[in-house]
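pipeline stage [seq->struct] | target=DDE domain-containing protein | organism=Seohaeicola zhoushanensis | residues=162
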Amino acid sequence: MRTSHWRWHLDEVFVKINGERHYLWRAVDHEGEVLESFVTRTRDNKAALKFLKKAMRKHGRVEVLVTDKLWSYGAALREIGAADRQETGRWLNNRAENSYQPFRRRERAMLRFRRMRSLQKFASIHASVHNLFNQERSLTSRVHFKANRTAALTEWRGLCAA
């Protein structure tokens, strides 16, 4: 099995669907790209385990998993055999916490969600599109940023035309 030398940040957020509370679990890599999004009705060990297995099956094993102090992560990681890879800390998980901001803006514009399936579909597609256009603006020069942005827009238009 391949091993990723990256650092994943895991977090979950409350999302209301028709007045019921659901949970959107997300895995974000060290660069801020959303790796996996998963919607569940519960926020327990079973949901955390299912989310972790899905993410690891798709992206391979990881060196370090940064989480908040939710006990479900620890229990799920013990069951997988990766409890020694977990890191928790006061501000360590800010990358995952901040990754929800574009999602929340779009959610408000859509006037919330009606079905769990539509939330799951939207979350995964929104993450893919956001990953394509999200670039660390502060790390590159303006000329380089604009060239990358133009290339991403050209690729997007090519995908939409097909």
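stage status: PASS
auto-comment: The first helix runs from residue 45 to 59. The chain has a mean pLDDT of 84.
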